[in-house]
Specification:
heterodimer, A: mainly beta, 7-stranded mixed beta sheet, 4-stranded antiparallel beta sheet, globular, B: 123 residues, mainly beta, 1 helix
């Protein structure tokens, strides 16, 4: 299976900060990558798909980039409601779908 | 408005079979491109994809669990059922169902999720 690694695993940031999370795939996944946000006790929420397409209703401070093996999720100006865990997911090897281990964004 | 809701037992004993139902509204699984999937998350751990069923009744399973999983749909009831046999304490997790709209997103990204159901496996 394709392995996804995320860095950092934990990130401490302040409101207004620019935050960047990296996801690296163990092999080329084209642009079949998504980012999800999960708050404690809640279901994940789709933020970005196709590496860079913003899901409807997601604030424009979120953006995604990358292709092949290296991807980033950027929050341009961190807001209080953005404190959460973020997961990347690859679908290039469907049905062998895999998720990354997550990055927790905390104060 | 798309909604999904998981239902099933909160507690199962080791070796028993788990049956979970996802009841959804706001879309039809008979519409081309629509899929429903199951994902689980052990406490404090990452997400793990389990199974997916599409509009054409094609079914896909996590390789490592394929012998234990069965996914099925009842289009008339807007329900998808997942069964997992031979449950073990390591299967303790929150189980989510989610939707994919293949033709809108270009793949099986999960755009709507249920709230999840915590299933504990213990004697």
């Amino acid at each position: 299976d394709i392995q996804l690694t995320q860095s950092p695993s934990f990130l401490s940031a302040s409101v207004g900060d620019r935050v960047t999370i990296t996801c690296r795939a163990s092999q080329d996944i084209n642009i079949y990558l998504a980012w999800y946000q999960q708050k404690p006790g809640k279901a994940p929420k789709l933020l970005i798909y196709g590496a860079s397409t913003l899901q409807n209703g997601v604030p424009s401070r979120f953006s995604g980039s990358g292709s092949e093996t290296d991807f980033t999720l950027t929050i341009s100006s961190l807001q209080p409601e953005d404190y959460a865990t973020y997961y990347c997911q690859q679908l290039n090897s469907f049905p062998r779908i895999t998720f990354g281990p997550g990055t927790k964004v905390d104060i | 408005q798309v909604t999904l809701r998981e239902s099933g037992p909160a507690l199962v004993k080791p070796t028993q079979t788990l049956t979970l139902t996802c009841t959804f509204s706001g879309f039809s699984l008979s519409t081309s491109g629509m899929c429903v999937t199951w994902i689980r998350q052990p406490p404090g751990k990452a997400l793990e994809w389990l199974a997916l069923i599409d509009w054409d009744d094609d079914k896909y399973y996590r390789t490592s669990l394929e012998t234990r999983l069965t996914i099925s749909k009842d289009t008339s009831k807007n329900q998808v059922v997942l069964t997992m046999t031979n449950m073990d304490p390591v299967d303790t997790a929150t189980y989510y169902c989610a939707r994919s709209d293949f033709y809108t997103t270009g793949s099986y990204y999960f755009d709507y999720w249920g709230q999840g159901i915590l299933v504990t496996v213990s004697s």
